[in-house]
Design brief:
single chain; mainly beta; 4-stranded antiparallel beta sheet
């Protein structure tokens, strides 16, 4: 769960993480799932992680290239400036 500034409602997200390693690549992928232990709560807006993850590619014995992707729907009504500001802090 994450806190939002008032008057916005706080959000939460339930994700499943999976990873795969092959030929110098490491992929870590997250996406939203429904889970019986964590049903939606009335005091939170359930955000959806469509696809979020990292791709790490080895470029040498002590170096790599990191690619990060975040495709998230925060749901509800959020002003564009809030989404843009949050992406500067939450994504990295």
């Amino acid at each position: 769960a994450g806190r939002c500034p008032k008057p916005l409602k706080n959000r939460d997200v339930v994700t499943l993480r999976s990873w795969h390693v092959q030929d110098g690549y490491h992929a870590i992928i997250n996406f939203s799932v429904k889970h019986p232990k964590y049903p939606p709560r009335k005091d939170l807006v359930r955000a959806v992680s469509l696809l979020t993850g990292y791709l790490v590619h080895s470029t040498g014995p002590s170096s790599c290239r990191l690619t990060y992707l975040a495709q998230v729907d925060p749901k509800g009504s959020l002003p564009k400036w809030v989404v843009n500001k949050a992406s500067q802090y939450l994504a990295p």
